[in-house]
Amino acid sequence: MKSHATETAPLDPDSVLIVDGVFAFRPEIDTYWDFRIWMDVDAELSVRRGAERDRNWAGSDAEAIHRDRYLVAEHLYLRKVDPLPRMDAVVDNTDFARPLITN
Q1: Phi and psi for 40 in degrees, rounded to 5?
Q2: Strand order from edge to edge, sheet including 100-101
Q3: Per-residue pLDDT tens for 30-70?
């Protein structure tokens, strides 16, 4: 199986590359970003959305996985890395149909 990490694509100097990732502002990679956007959503809503999305593979454990694993990891990340002060934009993503730039 070929990993996506081994694939490359040529880019023009004026290209825009958008990267979406969990923990994307860790110190070891944070310097690579020219513009940082934080998608903000309430923790409980995030757990509900994740559980709903992942129920097909996680079954009845989906909510526990999101609450006890992913949410805990995010809280640790936020305390350790404190990425929010470095954001160029913050988007309230409570309503998928109506994201709102708040910063």
Answers
A1: -100, 135
A2: 37-40, 89-92, 100-101
A3: 999 999 999 999 999 999 999 999 999 999 999 999 999 99
pLDDT exceeds 60 at position 77: yes
Listed in sequence order, the residues at least 6 apart from 74 whose beta carbon sits closer than 8 Å to its beta carbon are 22, 43
CB-facing half-sphere around the CA of 63: CA atoms within 13 A: 4
Structural domain contains residue 58? yes
Residues whose CB is less than 8 angstroms from the CB of residue 79 and which lie 6 or more positions away in sequence, other chains included: none
Structure tokens at 42: 């309430």
Q: What is the pTM of this model?
A: 0.81
Q: Is residue 47 part of a domain?
A: yes
Domain that residue 52 falls in: 19-101
Amino acid at 2: K
Confirm whether 10 is domain-assigned. Answer: no
63 found inside a domain: yes
What is the amino acid identity at position 25? Answer: F
**Residue 2 confidence (pLDDT):** 55
- Residue 24 CB neighbours (<10 A): 16
